[in-house]
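Hi, here's the filled form for the chain we discussed.

Project: internal
Contact: R.S.
Residues: 143
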Amino acid sequence: MLMRTDPFRELDRLAQQMMGPGTWSRSSAMPMDAYREGDEYVVAFDLPGVPADAIDIDVERNMLTVKAERRPVTKADDVQMELSERPLGVFSRQIVLADTLDTEHIQADYDAGVLTLRIPIAERAKPRKISIGVGSGRKEISG
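And the returned structure, exactly as it came back:
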């Protein structure tokens, strides 16, 4: 049997084992997608198993911070855990937003484990036409 190995995948696996998932004292990153849709930017974070009340979104100047906490599920006394691979603890992500975005009107929706933020583009940053005035004559500057 022939097996191919990818050294980078092995390096990622080793780094994950050493770093481990996030804990309550050390947060880990959450996967996200970011794209432009019309006149707004959309950022979607994967947060499966996190209740909406455990998500915190802050904006300070141009820094957007999303924190979420996945807590252990309470189990009955007669339940014995056989395998636990889903990470618990605090997840955090910080994004620097451009000055061209309107941070006063961010909309947040949470559905099926996906937090979606819609950030409108500020009016001052939208393209606009500049009209050209035609002067009646030339002016000279003498000095």
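Let me know if anything looks off before we file it.
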